[in-house]
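P.,

For your records, the input lines for the assembly:
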Amino acid sequence: MTPSTITFTARLREAAEVVEASLETLLADKVRHGEIARPARLMAAMRHGALGGGKRLRPFLTIETARLLGRDGEGPLRAGCAVELLHCYSLVHDDLPSMDDDDLRRGRPTVHRAFDEATAILVGDALQTLAFEVLADPATDADPAIRSDLVLGLARASGLGGMVGGQLLDLSAEGRYGPADLAEADVRRLQMMKTGAILTFSVEAGAIVGRADAAARGRLVEYGRALGAAFQVADDILDREASAEAMGKRTGKDQEKGKATLVDLLGMEGARRECRDLVEKAQGALDGFGPRAEILREAVRFVVEREA
Amino acid sequence: MTPSTITFTARLREAAEVVEASLETLLADKVRHGEIARPARLMAAMRHGALGGGKRLRPFLTIETARLLGRDGEGPLRAGCAVELLHCYSLVHDDLPSMDDDDLRRGRPTVHRAFDEATAILVGDALQTLAFEVLADPATDADPAIRSDLVLGLARASGLGGMVGGQLLDLSAEGRYGPADLAEADVRRLQMMKTGAILTFSVEAGAIVGRADAAARGRLVEYGRALGAAFQVADDILDREASAEAMGKRTGKDQEKGKATLVDLLGMEGARRECRDLVEKAQGALDGFGPRAEILREAVRFVVEREA
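Structure tokens returned:
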């Protein structure tokens, strides 16, 4: 590992720790806002779905993007936690029996296996709500224009035209709703919606709380898009290669379900080439930000080399 | 019917029409924000879940509360539509097989019957997201502080400490998660969370967009709470009495599932008395607003006399 890789790994781990602590506080079983005590079962299941796992890549991107712009502390951390809560909700719902029907997530039982299906649906619902609650709370930013901008951005990245729309396209790609014969453009669109939009917003959220001007925000969004696309190609490559042990979840799933991936469409070598191109594109978008952007450059390398 | 009842009925119908048209626009199958076309199946299922039915009581309350404060037009309408989208999402998820397992809603097949379970879960998810997107959009209010306030209020009313928490308590009340022996306080808490919080917020949203001062907002929230509680007691009474034909959905469901309602705890006469007390309380909260509040007074009567 190069020195910058060591720094990156330490920063990623450090961010994961503060995010975990912050999510723990947000999900603490105590009365807030004069609320009467919350249902204990729902609290426990939300904690199961959101705590104790994951690299916390999304909040890391939010925090580091804000730091690049000279902003740190509670604001970027809370914005990052909101993105992570949104991500956790999507995992809980995607794992449901009527969706991907997964029993394990990060080596632990999924929420509907550890609790039950109704509880898992409500956990996802409540985690989504909590993400928006966190963003709209004055503790995230004193400026309500920043808070509204964050809410609007997260909503657009995660709804019908973003993550949830992408999940429906993904189910369609299995052939559930009629024959699926996806061309390259369809696979790219599906991936951009399903995983790319939220990864891009993780970066954009940092740009928003960091008060980036329009030009800087545009370049950071470009970085986020390339990083999101690289993440997904790398995922397709991993899905084909990795063993179940290394990933802690079932793999080869896409193949099993007959879903076309970029590896099918471009070939393994073509997919690897695309990955390299996207890394270059993402890093190019950071050119104007100088050496302080090194950590975000490392983030792209990390995203495509996750199997190591 | 008295003249004021005629006015009320006309205003309720008129609000339902503008709300329907506005929801239609929000759910129109067209490209917005430069989005690539949305998945057609998800669009169609969202339309099934949100259009063509219901009295639209919640947006009516938002619109009329804002009007009482001298504000009308697009802002209150959009705020009301957001509350309605949130309400529709909760109905779609509550109807799911693992929840209340209902085949019919307003006399039509529920979303998971008309489409499938995975699609219905995604419909609920996307309707929730859209509710927050609508509130955070500058088209709802030019002032970002108002928009943030709306987002925060809706999130608190609908999440873990509100509607979703109430739904989990409701499932618990069926005895799914161990013996359920609900005392009066538990039933009241469940109802306040499950249905009362969103009804209260319907009114509060009107107070927020209508720029109510703290005192007026407090009284309107008090009105909303009493109205929400009256709604639920009336629902318990209806559930015991009404026939399946009159309601367009299965009734006597609570009894069938062994859930305690206020009718069990207070008796039919006690429940009717509580209804009358709540009507009086709600109307009392409107005392300082003069004759322009007559429409909101009628709304409480309407809520408790729905069976007529």
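Two observations worth noting. Chain A touches chain B through 59 residues (CB under 8 Å). Chain A has a mean pLDDT of 90.

Regards
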